[in-house]
């Protein structure tokens, strides 16, 4: 490669490019690891309050199942969950109950993607369900249902973690009569 | 010598990664075969021709231990009732997502969309292997 009068370079252009490329790759990997590692012990202090405001139970004879329309009051302050490695939160409310046919039924009734810390304080007395509470059969009437607020932390890079506000479970009784 | 071996291994690894392809839309997900039962909110993978990575919306666990699961994509307007039988059964689902690395898979997508880029890159890597002999 070297011109006349100059000593030939012992390292070729391609070797330099190769080294540079893999050095960049290693750095990227290291920084990704650091981003995940520095936030691993981040402790959040979320404040959650969840309540049922209104419920309407219907019997859908043709489909063969019970369906309940819910209206919730949510006051959840998840701002402290955010840190520099959190890309977004996926917040969802599950309704859990037992029936004669199933030992466990879990139905997500509402969810929301939160991308900004400022939006992470969810406060509304009129959250109508996004997905109706639908049973597989006719097992909702006069049944006890538990509402739980959960969130999935989606990092910029690293572990995907699920959190549940199990200390703030709201239990309610579905009406004994159809609307 | 050790450095050279490592370098070679890295080149081969990245060439393999690019060749085999890891995940679909740009991000890399690390999966694990979960032993924990499926619960609402879990992200699961249905291993179709193009793997479907969706979140569990409904779980109905029978006395016998059989589980009915309904999934939905976060960004989709409707659930996956149209993608499988009325309610997906557990065997349809294989793995749960555990870790997340964004965008790196974009390389794979570009490779798959433009095969020429793939050949060029693998060719260049082959050249590296040949030229890194000191």
TrEMBL record, chain A:
Domain of life: Eukaryota
Keyword Transmembrane helix included in the entry's annotation: yes
UniProt keyword list: Endoplasmic reticulum, Membrane, Signal-anchor, Transmembrane, Transmembrane helix
One GO cellular component term: signal peptidase complex
Entry protein name: Signal peptidase complex subunit 3
A Pfam family per the record: SPC22
Segments crossing the lipid bilayer: 20-41
Similarity comment text for this entry: Belongs to the SPCS3 family.
Main location: endoplasmic reticulum
Compartment list: Endoplasmic reticulum membrane
GO biological-process terms attached to the record: protein targeting to ER; signal peptide processing
Organism of provenance: Emiliania huxleyi (strain CCMP1516)
Topology within the bilayer: Single-pass type II membrane protein
UniProtKB/TrEMBL annotation, chain B:
Record PROSITE patterns: SPASE_I_3 (PS00761)
Membrane topology: Single-pass type II membrane protein
CDD domains reported for this sequence: Peptidase_S24_S26
A GO molecular function held by the record: serine-type endopeptidase activity
Transmembrane annotation, as ranges: 6-30
Subcellular location: Endoplasmic reticulum membrane
Superkingdom assignment: Eukaryota
Main location (coarse class): endoplasmic reticulum
GO CC annotations on file: signal peptidase complex
Record keywords: Membrane, Transmembrane, Transmembrane helix
GO biological process, one term: signal peptide processing
Function: Catalytic component of the signal peptidase complex (SPC) which catalyzes the cleavage of N-terminal signal sequences from nascent proteins as they are translocated into the lumen of the endoplasmic reticulum. Specifically cleaves N-terminal signal peptides that contain a hydrophobic alpha-helix (h-region) shorter than 18-20 amino acids.
PANTHER family: SIGNAL PEPTIDASE COMPLEX CATALYTIC SUBUNIT SEC11
Protein name: Signal peptidase complex catalytic subunit SEC11
Protein species of origin: Emiliania huxleyi (strain CCMP1516)
Classification lineage: Eukaryota, Haptista, Haptophyta, Prymnesiophyceae, Isochrysidales
């Amino acid at each position: 490669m070297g011109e006349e009068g100059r000593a030939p370079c012992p390292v070729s252009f391609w070797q330099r490019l190769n080294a540079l490329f893999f050095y960049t790759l290693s750095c990227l990997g290291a920084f990704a690891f650091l981003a995940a590692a520095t936030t691993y012990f981040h402790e959040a202090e979320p404040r959650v309050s969840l309540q049922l405001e209104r419920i309407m139970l219907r019997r859908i004879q043709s489909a063969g199942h019970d369906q309940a329309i819910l209206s919730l009051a949510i006051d959840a302050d998840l701002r402290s969950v955010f840190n520099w490695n959190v890309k977004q939160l996926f917040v969802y409310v599950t309704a859990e109950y037992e029936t004669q046919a199933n030992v466990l039924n879990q139905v997500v009734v509402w969810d929301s993607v939160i991308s900004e810390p400022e939006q992470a304080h969810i406060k509304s007395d009129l959250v109508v369900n996004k997905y109706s509470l639908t049973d597989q059969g006719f097992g909702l009437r006069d049944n006890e249902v538990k509402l739980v607020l959960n969130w999935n932390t989606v990092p910029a890079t690293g572990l995907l973690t699920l959190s549940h506000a199990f200390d703030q479970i709201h239990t309610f009784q579905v009406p004994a009569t159809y609307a | 010598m050790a450095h050279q071996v490592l370098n070679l291994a890295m080149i081969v690894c990245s060439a393999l990664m690019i060749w085999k392809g890891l995940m679909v839309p740009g991000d890399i997900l690390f999966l694990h075969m979960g032993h924990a039962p499926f619960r609402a909110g879990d992200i699961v993978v249905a291993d179709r021709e193009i793997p479907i990575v969706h979140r569990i919306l409904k779980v109905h666990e029978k006395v016998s231990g059989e589980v009915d699961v309904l999934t939905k994509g976060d960004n989709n307007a409707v659930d996956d009732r149209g993608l499988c039988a009325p309610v997906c059964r557990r065997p349809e689902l294989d793995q749960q997502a555990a870790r997340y690395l964004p965008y790196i898979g974009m390389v794979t997508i570009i490779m798959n969309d433009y095969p020429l880029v793939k050949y060029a890159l693998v060719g260049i890597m082959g050249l590296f292997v040949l030229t890194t002999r000191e």
